[in-house]
Amino acid sequence: MYLLYFAIIVLIPLWAQMRVKSTFAKYSQVRSASYRSGAEVAREILNANGLYDVGVEEGRGFLSDHYDPRSKTVRLSPENFHGHSIAAAAVAAHECGHAIQDSHGYVFLRFRSALVPVANFGSNVSWILIMIGLLADATNMLLLGIIFMAAAVLFQIVTLPVEFNASSRAMDQVVSLGLISNREEREARKVLNAAALTYVAAAAVAVLELLRLVLIYTGMNRSDD
Fold first, then answer.
1. For this UniProt entry, which segments traverse the membrane (predicted)?
2. How many domains does the chain have?
3. What is the per-residue pLDDT for 10?
4. Which of 13, 129, 130, 200 has its CA 20 to 30 A from that of 176?
């Protein structure tokens, strides 16, 4: 049973990552009808939404694309910054979706930002406390570890609406601004959906692991009675 469980929590993220890479590889070879680079797509979306103060920069690393709310910057990986593909346009638009969320004060983005320090601390400390609790048969220590872990899991869950909303905004922008043609909408959506799968997989695995530890904790309490 445990082997099956661990196989599931390992295979789900691997499958999601493979799906992202294969989908991106496919549509990064398909040029968009507008033939704009990812950087050009990002700049046009930002300007159209009055976000002239948000910069667009080339980042480093494969699929390292992100929006930095601290410096108000959309950073695109080299292949998306320079690429003229449907994949580059979709990813660039998605990151601009986060910039638009930030400018509108999107509640889930604010909530996620507020959770960052708590989630980072929880993910770093939780497993130390959990291991001590399991090895020393200390239920109080285990419970404390589970509470800290729950904060990290909550961050993963809150990330889902943030990412799906950014993708929805991205599609609205590329369509309304004519950055992709009607026939390219389906392909751009496939890129965004594949990327969303990684967040869904991460959240699912985190919830499963938290539930497993809660069951262990309740079992230890019963044995103490």
1. 114-135, 142-162, 191-215
2. 1
3. 80
4. 200
